[in-house]
Amino acid sequence: QVQLVESGGGLVQPGGSLNLSCAASGTIDNIATMGWYRQAPGKQRDWVALITKGGWTDHAESVKGRFTISRDNANNIIYLQMNILKPEDTAIYYCNARQLMPSLINFWGQGTQVTVSS
Predict the structure, then answer these.
(1) Distance (Å, whole) CA 20 – CA 8
(2) Through-space distance between the first and last CA atoms of the chain, rounded to whole angstroms
(3) Helix (H, G, I), strand (E, B) or coil at 116
(4) What is the three-class DSSP state of 27?
(5) Which is nearest to 63 in space by CA: 80, 44, 40?
(6) Is residue 102's pLDDT more than 90?
(7) Which of 9, 13, 23, 27 could form a disulfide with 112 if both were Cys (CB 3.0 to 4.6 A apart)?
(8) Angle 83-36-49 (CA atoms, 0-180°, nearest 5)?
(9) What pLDDT is attached to residue 79?
(10) β-pairing, 67-72 with 91-99?
């Protein structure tokens, strides 16, 4: 099992910044990728960004140039630096850890609320 704990959400004005963190613990040796998803009220959960064990990253088009995912391998933490926030970024942000072998398993954190409003 893998446990994921997010932190860093909150209320911010448009144009502001937030930095989310996700600490992973448990059986993490088989985790291939970690990432962030978000879910706005009444909408499906959407992928935001991912990072591999080797540090390769990818970001959704809607956040490219504004959000940056990174990781601290020594402490099993990933981050999501969010800049130039917009009201449409308002959502619950979930940390994800994906195991591919020996079987595909997705682990999720409890989520952290991000609200962008003036």
Answers:
(1) 4
(2) 40
(3) strand
(4) coil
(5) 80
(6) no
(7) 9
(8) 70
(9) 98
(10) unpaired
Cis ω before 14 (30° cut-off from 0) = no
| Structure letter (DSSP) for residue 89 | G
- 51 token code pair: 């990072």
Q: Tens digits of per-residue pLDDT, 1-25?
A: 899 999 999 999 999 999 999 999 9
94: Cβ–Cβ under 8 A, 6 or more apart, which residues? 6, 36, 37, 38, 39, 45, 108, 109, 111
Which of 75, 71, 76, 67 lies closest to 56 in space, CA to CA? 71
Amino acid identity, position 108:
W
Instruction: Provide the pLDDT for residue 85.
Output: 98
d(CA 52, CA 43): 27
Element (DSSP H or E) covering residue 21: strand 18-26
With cut-offs at 50, 70 and 90, classify the pLDDT of residue 46: very high
Percent of the chain with pLDDT over 70: 100
∠ CA 51-109-20, rounded to 5°: 60
